[in-house]
Amino acid sequence: MESLTRSLTTLGLREYEARVYAALVGIGEGTARQIHAVSGVPRPRVYDIAEGLADRGFVTVRRGSPHVYIPLEPAVVVQRLKQAMDRAATDAVRDLDALSLDARAKTSPLWYVVGEWSIRRHVEALADGIRDDLSVVCMDYGTLGEFARLIAGAAEHHPVDVLLPHGRRGIPRPLGNARLLAPAEFCEFFQEHIFRRVFAGPIAVEGTEFVLEYIFIADDRVCMIIYAQNGVRNAVVITLPFITCVQKQYIRKMIAHAAVIAPL
Question: For residue 64, what is the domain's CATH number?
Answer without folding.
Answer: 1.10.10.10
